[in-house]
Amino acid sequence: xxxxxxxDFGSTYTKVSAVDLDAPRLLARxxxxxTYATDLARGLRAALDRLRAAYGSPLPPFTHRLAxxxxxxxxxxxxxxxxxxxxxxxxxxxxLGAGARVLATYSGTLDERxxxxxxxxxxxxxxxxxxxxxxxxxALVDFARALAAAPLRAAIVVAGNRDAAPAAADLLRxxxxxxxxxxxxxxxxxxxxxxxxxxxxxxxxxxxxxxAEGWERVxxxxxxxxxPTPAAVLRGAELLAGGAGDEPGLGEVVVVDxxxxxxxxxxxxxxxxxxxxxxxxxxxxxxxxxTVEGDLGLRHGAPSLLEAAGPPGGVExxxxxxxxxxxxxxxxxxxxxxxxxxRQADAWLAREAVRLAVERHVGRREALVTPRGRQWIQxxxxxxxxxxxxxxxxxxxxxxxxGWVLAAAVDPEGQGPLLxxxxxxxxxxxxxxxxxxxxxxxxxxxxxxxxLKQSLxxxxxxxxxxxxxxxGP
Length: 473
Known about the structure:
Rossmann fold
């Protein structure tokens, strides 16, 4: 039997799976609290001990030992560009596709106030764009000059005008900054080129994880960290949508990943205007798109999630009660509610995370009255016709009604400004292996797809509650 060990160092838990590549089948799965702040290897050892216990006999030799990580909150990043809807947006997309958490996007100029705000955010990476090739040559150099004078320790990826990039990089290097120069993310107004920037961002990620406490001991258990966890989940979504070899995919999908620190939404869909009455504004949407909401988490991010959603109404919805609940979860990320009331509270928080994250991910439209009748202006992706919606994350395994949580991603009417899925088939990742299968897809894509399909479990939505913000299941 050929087997693989798959590891995800999450912000809250380290999750491990052993799979049979030949069958293919899941042999065992386990998890233990992540110990990033003290010794990453300790949490991994605990997870592997539980995996051995779940398997019931010594683990088989592994052909592959692959890992991804979002431990420590993942890679923190800011994007800088010249025009908000063009170079700045291209830089943001490159960052998100690489699995980074985008803290802010700056455009136009980097004045003292903007630089101070950027430095205060303490990013791990700054993606510096500006100017198409053959276009504006001064903006990129001006951005570099502003950052060179700043007390900034982040790695800087220069991905702007190709003629200005060498001068910008020279300014930064002479100021002692860590710099990588890659191809322009927007070489022409109608052309996105994000892959070189994404590759550079992942290099920074690998260097960052390598300095984590206990990393040397972790290396003895794995072949390497292939990618950030969000990038692995996006790869899993792409696999599920597009298929592999002779194994067909499902077609277009939206995946909502609810975690302790963030809620990520991944869409693999064209998202283009649905009819001739709609005009797309801004950059064309990428087929594979990810957004990460750093203020929408069920543990580390619970207080900011409550702030964004507002506490529910009713007798049990007092602000004091809900603030106490979210503080408890943030202070104890490994908290597992035992009482039914607290399980319901987790479900409500998850539903609000799904609702807000999907609303921020999907495109929007606005009506425009013309002599030819009503027209629409679309910005972002139209996901109303996407046929499959998938929830992944521990909450979907433990919530009393996972369909009620996932229903917040759906708008059955589809007539409003938000272009949310209307009537998709709804599934949950029943074995919580989406990230693991995204990893495995790098070396065994057909086996990964078959295992991912095995993990999908159909759930029905309570249609009367879909898309809203009800007080509880």
